[in-house]
């Protein structure tokens, strides 16, 4: 009987909901567990717990809340390897990649522990005669977070640590495909001293999400996932009066200029295209090579380097790339490779025939490389989210930039060049939220914020960093006068000003 993954409500592991879904080990194709799928009543119980915990937590001094985050960080560091093992077991990514994910999550917790400094607000003495004015950043109440499968531990840590450090309570709905690491992480927060109810975890699918989006007690929603779902969550959440940020999908282009250091660029591109099996919203699935000579050199070097890659279970030492997350996703990604061939792109490396000995039922697809990808093709337009890299040939930097700007997504991009002027022109003008120069995955550090442009983000504020402090708080501005004893003031009918 596979283990049944529960919810975490009011500080306790709980059942709830008649339905459950299989969780797979992607390296073997075996069912490793079953996850509860919460019904509306279960989600409402989690919201009620968060709602009840909010008043006391809101009034807890920020420094005490921050101390819980510091202790939580210590526990995360001690248990990082266990969390990484859970990620690899359910997601499939290689262990070193899972450890990297946990570390980036820990950095978000570290930043959340600075919340007292970040919440200090603004103060103006003598805004008028005897009048002082100040702005406070007050917590919202119950906040919900809905997260994707591809960073099952890190993306939740983008959200709830800063939300609770700011004084909110939280209900997290992790991906039902790999839910175990987020649950362990939440239990460590309780062990660190987070009061019961301040953080609840409900496992589930659309039914759970719909309940979070429509319950009047939920004040704000942070979502990360695919663009169609992000757009619908943004619309529904806003229609129900909630503050919503919904981060969506991506199709990130890397421009390689004729003067680039091709050896270093290709090494960077390999990791960015095939790390985590391409299942990253900041992955590079497209190379835009400027000039045919550049394209020929890049394709030849990529082909040679791909031949040296090792694909295997994420637990195997020396594996560079693991399997895709589920059978359904494997079929979808493989279908895109078939599609690219049918569309006339040149398949230079075909990973479709890969067999990993002893893991024949795993969801392994070898790295695939296309040359001569054209903007009209579906493999150019759509997010594949797998180990499929396409090379597009253009004649100039301006042509490369026009392509990037015309794409519906605007998450990340990068340029490889030795030319400072070209790099500066690119970073200044490109219509993309996160830009790298000789850096393939320009994922901002925890004290900056993460956010794409165009259809990669619905809402005004990005994830984590300073944007998170603003998203998880409401500004209140107070203007105060204490008249001196005995001073009588007449009515003033003109609009008050400082003239
Ligand atoms: P997904 O959209 O399928 O699921 C994300 C979450 O939404 C999950 O918790 C899921 O249970 C829930 N969900 C799915 N369908 C729903 C529906 N119809 N109604 C309500 N809730 C629903 O995404 P995924 O496959 O888990 O993750 C991969 C996607 O996430 C990719 O598109 C990737 O680019 C994107 N992503 C974006 C970022 C970013 O920061 N922009 C980061 C990571 C992943």
Task: Give the SSE map.
Layout: E1 3-5, E2 7-9, E3 12-14, E4 19-25, E5 30-37, H1 40-58, H2 62-78, H3 80-91, H4 95-112, H5 115-118, E6 122-128, E7 131-139, E8 142-146, H6 154-165, E9 169-173, H7 180-191, E10 199-201, H8 206-214, E11 218-224, H9 227-239, E12 243-247, E13 253-256, H10 262-274, E14 286-290, H11 292-306, H12 327-343, E15 346-349, E16 368-371, H13 378-381, E17 388-394, H14 397-406, E18 409-410, E19 412-416, H15 420-429, E20 434-437, E21 453-454, E22 457-458, H16 465-471, E23 473-481
Helix pairs in contact: 1-8, 2-4, 2-7, 3-4, 3-7, 4-6, 10-11
This protein binds nicotinamide-adenine-dinucleotide.
User: Span from first to last CA?
Assistant: 77 Å
Helicity range of the residues? 25-40%
- The structural domain count equals 2
- CATH names the topology of the largest domain as Aldehyde Dehydrogenase, Chain A, domain 1
Ligands, deduplicated: nicotinamide-adenine-dinucleotide
Q: Helical stretch count? A: 16
Strand order of the largest sheet: 15-16-17-14-13-19-20
CATH class of the largest domain: Alpha Beta
- Structural class of the secondary structure composition? alpha/beta
Query: What is the CATH architecture annotation of the largest domain?
Result: 3-Layer(aba) Sandwich
Mean pLDDT: 97
Instruction: Estimate the strand proportion.
Output: 15-25%
Radius of gyration: 25 Å
Concise structural overview:
The protein is built from 16 helices and 23 strands. The protein is an alpha/beta fold and 499 residues long.
